[in-house]
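for the recovery benchmark. tokens below, seq after
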């Protein structure tokens, strides 16, 4: 049951400084990526995947189905692969329009190079499932190893974005 004719007016405190909020957000995200609490997250998680991906043909119950699904999730779904790297690249472009910081621009450029490599990994995983050829997984592993280092460097650049003024209370 709802109350009739009830309305609220919500007002926030002082308007926050968008530049300072962006700086704090990208620095915080970078710190979490660089120092994940477990080995399955951040650059450590990518490196872990690189070490394990070569065994996916043997581990999969139905390799054509399972590897195609893994590739689809990397490319279009919630595993954080190409889909999220592309979105993050676009987010960083928007950040660069508000914040003038060399490290932010460097990371934006790097994520422009990183996102297509995740597509390459997804394609290699799908090809391995379709053909049963483990060479595709070896290629995926090499690309993931490269990605772990590229993303570590990109996030290190973001961690070094100059702090802005404190956010208004």
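predicted aa per position
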């Amino acid at each position: 049951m709802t109350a009739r004719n009830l309305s609220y007016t919500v007002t926030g405190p002082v308007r926050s400084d968008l530049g300072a909020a962006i700086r704090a957000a990208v620095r915080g995200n970078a710190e979490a990526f660089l120092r994940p609490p477990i080995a399955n997250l951040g650059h450590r998680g990518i490196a872990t995947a690189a070490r394990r991906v070569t065994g996916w043909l043997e581990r999969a119950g139905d390799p054509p189905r399972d590897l195609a699904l893994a590739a689809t999730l990397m490319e279009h779904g919630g595993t954080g692969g190409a889909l999220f790297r592309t979105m993050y690249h676009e987010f960083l472009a928007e950040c660069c329009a508000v914040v003038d910081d060399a490290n932010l621009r460097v990371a934006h450029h790097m994520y422009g190079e990183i996102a297509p490599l995740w597509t390459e990994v997804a394609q290699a995983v799908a090809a391995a499932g379709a053909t049963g050829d483990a060479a595709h997984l070896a290629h995926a592993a090499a690309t993931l190893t490269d990605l772990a280092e590229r993303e570590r460097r990109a996030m290190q650049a973001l961690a070094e974005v100059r702090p802005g003024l404190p956010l208004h209370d």
